[in-house]
Amino acid sequence: MRLPGVPHRGPTHTVWFVGAVGVATGFAGALIGWNAGLLEAILLGSFTFLIGAGTVISHIAADALTPAGVRPFAPRNETKYTYSVARVANPLANYALLAIGFVAAAGAVGLATRLTAAIGF
């Protein structure tokens, strides 16, 4: 998806954005877990931080597989990182990454289910 005025592989593909998304999702998870207690809020907040940050990291890593690469430390460091494994239009690479994403999402749902059951949610 494109955001008006925000270039693809721009600010949303940086470690700063990873941190912002992680903090936002972690805070939301802690708020949700707060009703169950402090420990539950910490556990759920930590878990949702990892899910939020991990989601953005995986997208940045996938874009680094292409020749266009990413600049994850911009604007402080403009070094471009690329592995040049596959072009963006490569259907085999895209389907493989889609399958990996499905497996990761299923794993996250499974972990979340176990975590919420363990804390009595």
Automatic annotation (TrEMBL):
UniProt keyword Magnesium present: no
Transmembrane segments: 15-34, 41-62, 92-112
InterPro entries hit by this protein: YdjM-like
Molecular function GO terms recorded: hydrolase activity
Pfam families: YdjM
Keywords assigned: Hydrolase, Membrane, Plasmid, Transmembrane, Transmembrane helix
Protein name: Membrane-bound metal-dependent hydrolase YbcI
UniProt organism field: Natrarchaeobaculum sulfurireducens
